[in-house]
Amino acid sequence: MLLRHLRAILLGPVTVTIIIPVLIVTTVGAGAVDLGPVARGLAVVVGSGLGAAGVAMLAWTISLFARDGAGTLSPQNPPRTLVMRGPYRHVRHPMFSGVLGIVLGEAIAARSLTLLAWFALFAFFVAVMVARVEEPRLARRFGSDYARYRDNVPRWVPRLRPWRAELPQGSAE
């Protein structure tokens, strides 16, 4: 199972957050904006903080997929049960939010217009893919449980108070 997780992480988040940005910067260039020393330092701090928060969210959601969902982030080995704990009680796609946070953080820290363009392109792809592929697949797999979850937890903008699903008797919160 560990190898499945590592393969899924390498094929997904590592490709999107490391390999593609490196290829973009080495082939196209960073397109860095010169902001002056104070703004440059602020950009590094803000971008690094956003990237670190994205990494933390990604790690948390991957661990929830493994522990509570008995699966990986890969469509070839998805969670067997619907994960509705932790950040999933606030927003339906925190794993994608984490990856988007990493990519945006990289663009801000590097002050890179080309990485910002990559963020915009990837965000558009994720938004379309989630609406047209991911959520219909989840609805087919988890039926009424997912429909109830979808009706109570927003797709992208987190709800302030966590949603509490009514758990079957004997389940721990």
From TrEMBL:
GO-annotated molecular function = methyltransferase activity
> Where would you find this protein in the cell?
Endomembrane system
Keyword Chloroplast tagged: no
Q: Which InterPro entries match?
A: Phopholipid_MeTrfase (IPR007318)
What GO biological process terms does the UniProt entry carry, in alphabetical order? methylation
Q: Which UniProt keywords apply?
A: Membrane, Methyltransferase, Transferase, Transmembrane, Transmembrane helix
A Pfam family matched by this chain, by name? PEMT
Q: What is this protein called?
A: Protein-S-isoprenylcysteine O-methyltransferase Ste14
Whose protein is this, by species? Answer: Pseudonocardia ammonioxydans
